[in-house]
Amino acid sequence: MMNEVGFIDTECTGTNHYTTAPTTAGATFRATKGDGNVKQRHWENVYTTKDVSKVGWYQQEPAISLSLLQKIGSTPKDVFIDVGCGTSTLTDALIESGYQDITLLDISPSALNIVKKRLGATADLPVYCVEDVCHFSTKKLFDVWHDRAVFHFLQKEEEQQEYLQTLHRSLSPDGYALIGTFAVDGPQSCSNLPVRQYNEERMKNLVQERFDILEVIEETHITPSGSEQRYCFFILKSIHPKE
Predict the structure, then answer these.
(1) What DSSP element (H or E) covers 199?
(2) For 26-47, how does the pLDDT look when each residue is reduced to its tens digit (9 = 90+)?
(3) CA 8, CA 2: separation in Å to the nearest integer?
(4) Residue 241, SS3?
(5) How confident is the model at residue 119 (pLDDT cuts 50, 70, 90)?
(6) Hey, what CATH topology would domain 63-238 get?
């Protein structure tokens, strides 16, 4: 609730003596007032203060993403973008497979710097973009739009539609969008932020005028701490008006 109204770094500092009934207790919360860059400040805090190999969404191997690329018949010639890439190792796997045209988009410059350092000699191959995807603009048309991290954080319909508009104008006519979200039986929050949960029906209600859903793949992600997170991955293709 605090995050939704613009506060960041919310923390419960403990209980206090205030009570409204024998079964309730008061609690004190501390938070920082956000500004226009609330999202960026939140994720900068994550990537500058946490061990990225221990965050809940971490994957040592991006197995599900690679299997989706195989499903759509992606090749190293494809123009590829990873939206909300964070510090994902998917880029490493793509470079190893021979992909040459890779764009990495994330709101956190620190996340992208971690990727650059990790890539070492191949760090100059990807294009790095620090931006909110809802405001992202490019002249490129992508053959593959990959997002395992952003869409389920969009709470407002306005944000969801801005995202879909950006996706629709950025995807090549024969391109595919691979979008991973938390499933309806998955987490209700991530990184102390609320998330939207999706199944095929919910996604179809949002995208039906712009995209066809070609396939839905359910996955159980095991976090570094050993807990399970249920995901839904959607393979989308743009709907173009018939001439």
Answers:
(1) none
(2) 998 887 665 558 889 899 999 9
(3) 7
(4) coil
(5) very high
(6) Rossmann fold (3.40.50)
Residue ranges of alpha helices (H) inside the chain are: 38-49, 63-71, 90-97, 109-119, 157-170, 200-207
Torsional class of 98: left (φ above 0), alpha (ψ -120 to 50), beta (otherwise) = left
- Would you list the DSSP string of 46-96? HHHHS-TTSSTT--SS-HHHHHHHHHTT--TTSEEEEET-TT-THHHHHHH
Ramachandran angles phi, psi of 49, nearest 5°: -120, -10
- The Cα–Cα gap between 154 and 134 comes to 10
C-alpha distance from residue 122 to each of 60, 94, 135, 236 (Å): 19, 11, 28, 30
Question: What does residue 100 show for φ and ψ, rounded to 5 degrees?
Answer: -115, -30
Q: What are the residue ranges spanned by the domains of the chain?
A: 7-49, 63-238
**pLDDT (tens digit per residue) in 138-185:** 999 999 999 999 999 999 999 999 999 999 999 999 999 999 999 999
Least confident of 20-24, 77-81, 171-175, 229-233: 20-24
198's CB contacts (< 8 A; 6+ apart) are 152, 181, 182, 183, 184, 232, 234
Sign of the C-alpha dihedral, residues 74, 224, 195, 3?
negative
- Residues 178, 145 contacting (CB under 8 angstroms): yes
